Amino acid sequence: MSCTGSLSRKFSPKWIILTGLSLCMVATMLLVFHGGSPEDYWPYVFPAFAIGSSGAMLIFTHGSIAIFQAVPSSMAGTVGAIFNSALQFGSAIGIAVTTSIETSVEATHGGSEEYTGRAAAFWFLAAVVAVQFISISVFYDRSTDHKPQPKHGEHGYPARLSTESKEKYDDDGKVTMAMSTSPQLEV
């Protein structure tokens, strides 16, 4: 479980996500140069798993925070479902592509070098992480960072906007006149 959620109060999620992608890039490079021998486990594989897991945790946690900061709360359920569907779809496609790269390289090299296919798959993953890093660097819009969401009862709160009332607001956003257009029940 991630305990880094409070970091987004002090830093922009953009920089936290870029830090996570940098950690994933370092981990992937360690796995590329691993070589496949058991002696390389502690200097390459173990640090790669520790660093890569930390980076992935930062990306997932603060990616969610960034997405939910950018959308209105009335769309949070829909956006959450799309985000989780994209994660599952990307995982399935990523595993399939990585496995096909590994098996095709191993088939091409005739199995003479047992780690060649895995190294090629890790090079592919390094390229994917690099593209993600560049994309976040260029296209992440920080205008929604730390933007306060309206509270219940305030102007702009989605539940208030969906009611059938005609309210007028002054310059401070306070209700000056409210008139309901829904039928009133009399007892």
| Biggest sheet, spatial arrangement of strands | 1-2
Specify the number of helices: 5
What sort of overall outline do the alpha carbons produce when their principal axes are compared?
elongated
Total individual domains: 2
Q: How many beta-strand runs?
A: 2
Regions with pLDDT < 50 over 5+ consecutive residues? 159-164, 182-187
Q: How large is the radius of gyration? A: 24 Å
Largest sheet: 2 strands, antiparallel
Summarize model confidence as the mean pLDDT: 82
Q: What is the straight-line distance between the termini?
A: 53 Å
Share of β-strand residues: 5-15%
- Amount of helix: 55-70%
Order of helices and strands: HHHHHEE
Q: Given the helix and strand composition, which structural class is it?
A: mainly alpha
Structural overview:
Residues about 160-165 and about 180-185 have low confidence and may be disordered. The protein has helices spanning about 15-30, 40-70, 75-110, 115-140, 160; strands at about 165-170, 175-180. The protein folds into 2 domains: about 5-145, no CATH class; about 150-185, no CATH class. The protein has 5 helices and 2 strands, in the order αααααββ. By secondary structure, the chain is mainly alpha-helical. Strand 1 (about 165-170) and strand 2 form a beta hairpin. It is a multi-pass membrane protein.
